[in-house]
Amino acid sequence: MARIAPPARPRLADRVAAAATRRMFGMPLDPGAVTAHSRGVFWSQLVGEVVLLRARRHLPERLRSLVEHRVAVVIGCPWCIDFGAMLALRVGVSAEELVAVRDYAGSASFTDLEKRAMAFADAATATPMGVTDAMVATLRAELGDAGTVELAHLVALENQRSRLNHALGITSQGFADGDVCALPPLDTARPTGAPLTAPGRAPA
């Protein structure tokens, strides 16, 4: 159960948005229900997601899904892992590949580019940030400037989603199988409350 319950009397616009997500995903989305307490947060989230959904994309859907899932797993947001897994399965990522994202570096399931993109996601999610000039230069050579900017934005956006939902205690809604959404230790595992650190750096 979320740490903050949805408004007892949602506004008409909130009810319309909930009905739209019910048609798309089979049920209203809990983050939208909770963030409806703040109209600014609710609408900035909703409009931003719709604009990005309709915009031209420079990254393959599979790569986007893997990166989003990796960030959600690193942060440990149950809702984002669950919802993201469902979306990833829709674009052809297998359940086995989603599980393998937890230790992608040692997996044969991913291309070198996919591994580099997830390593970038790890570095950008870390505290302090561990992104290097060399990482960005390599990604630019493979994805181009537009693709690299899109990747960086995607990582930052999933950090925002996952940290917001996780902080508010929003949990899985059962969109995907439990095995896919499990949270075993990561290769970046750390004690509860300790910061995720960039590779080769000591915690601050």
Automatic annotation (TrEMBL):
Coiled coil: none annotated. GO terms for molecular function: peroxiredoxin activity. Residues 54-122 form the Carboxymuconolactone decarboxylase-like domain. Gene3D superfamilies: AhpD-like (1.20.1290.10). InterPro entries: AhpD-like, CMD-like. Pfam families: CMD. PANTHER family: 4-CARBOXYMUCONOLACTONE DECARBOXYLASE FAMILY PROTEIN (AFU_ORTHOLOGUE AFUA_6G11590), CYTOPLASMIC PROTEIN. This is Carboxymuconolactone decarboxylase-like domain-containing protein. The lineage of its organism: Bacteria, Bacillati, Actinomycetota, Actinomycetes, Micrococcales.
